[in-house]
Give the backbone structure.
Amino acid sequence: MARLGRQKYRMPIWGAPLLSAEERRALDHDYRYAATRLVRQRSHIVLLSAQLESQAEIARVVGCSLDSVQRTLKLYCRRGRSGLRGPVRLRHSHARRTLGWLKALAEAMQRGPEACGVKRPTWTAPLLAQYLTEQTGVAVGEATVRRGLKSLDYVCRRPTWVLRQKAQAEPDYCPKPKGSKQS
């Protein structure tokens, strides 16, 4: 009786695209030279879909989850090679930080919060964002305010409690002796 060995049938992977030679070359180029790791990984997944037998094998070789393989193959089938690059995200923070907005920020920092009608001794990034929204009509977040402050060489940090100046202003101020542990 002859022993029947396991025959490996080359089963196509569900969702695997049929790749032309030109498309393989383009994906191989993306796999080797793309600017981001994500595009390289996605290109590798699509290339391996034509060579390996299962999506689980692709996930093992690439070092990602099975879900990532399935998502990538669906993405490639829907949008092609350009879909592997992901959506183009535009950064709007520079557009919002106009010269007029920066001037208003610099003026608010020079005048201080009390002179601007805010009943606080110091500015905070959320307060500045709210004040600048009222003044300029441009709604920005706390991070944008911090970037604007950095461009003006300001730093908005959490305030520290220093009571010595207030205590020295009192007429009956008596400083603690050096090395004293009294509170």
Summary: Confidence is low (pLDDT under 50) at residues 1-11. DSSP finds nine helices and no strands in the chain. The first helix runs from residue 21 to 33.
